[in-house]
Amino acid sequence: MDYYWILPKSKSPPIKRFAQSGVIIEDDLYFFGGLQIQNNEIPLNDIVKYNLNENSWKRVLPKIPKMSFHGTAEYNGKLFIYGGVSNNNRKVSNVFSIDLKTFEIQEISPQEYGIWPESRSQHVFIGYDNWAYLLWGNHEYKLMDQVFRFNMDRCKWELIYGDIDKSEKAIHGVPNSANVTLEKSYFRSGFTPNLFGNDNDIDDERDDERDDIDDESDSREEDNDDEKELEKDGNDSEKKHKSETDR
């Protein structure tokens, strides 16, 4: 089987962006938020829909809060959006639901539903049956290895894997990088600095590498200084010898 890409010329394309989330529902591909590529990466709060049959775009109302690097799952006519980076560049743990018939937006408060994951971005948030699975991500200055699942009927979280207060074997996921086929999840891409260590180990290794580079640079400078000194001594000796010969 031959695999190839097709670049369709669509009608009325939306603003160029990255760090958005998206889901496919029947013949429509929905995109949410993201960062505008031009103008210093301005956060976006729109919902756009791409029809796969008509090859056309449509802006959908209402607008969501400005966000990027978030995740979206679909269930029973509703979209659930979790986490990401807010308009003020802070990672958040909000969950929003959007009714696809009325386009009513509801924010689900963590105070009402017990256990709640830490805020994060660049995670995997994937739906299967009435559950949305949250994997990995980036929380402020640490990467996460936890796996949660969110019941989209009851709006409650469960911790499946990892310690809620500690995350050592961090894995950095990529939004929209997973899908479920035949009761199996497939993941691609992402970033893990050190699967068997933690972020501090990586920082220490980078510091050691910088120290090694600095040491090599200092050593080269010392060698160059020694060569210059020897060259100077040689020139002085040659001048002295020539002066004595002239006498």
UniProtKB/TrEMBL annotation:
Statement: the UniProt record of this protein carries the keyword Repeat: yes
One Pfam family cited in the UniProt record for this chain: Kelch_KLHDC2_KLHL20_DRC7
Entries under SUPFAM superfamilies matching the protein: Kelch motif (SSF117281)
Disordered: annotated span: 197-247
Keywords (A to Z) from UniProt: Kelch repeat, Repeat
Biased composition regions of type Acidic residues, renumbered to the chain: 200-228
Regions of compositional bias (Basic and acidic residues) in chain numbering: 229-247
InterPro entries: Kelch-typ_b-propeller
Entries under Gene3D superfamilies matching the protein: Kelch-type beta propeller (2.120.10.80)
Keyword Repeat on entry: yes
Full protein name: Kelch domain-containing protein
UniProt source species: Anaeramoeba ignava
High-level lineage: Eukaryota, Metamonada, Anaeramoebidae, Anaeramoeba
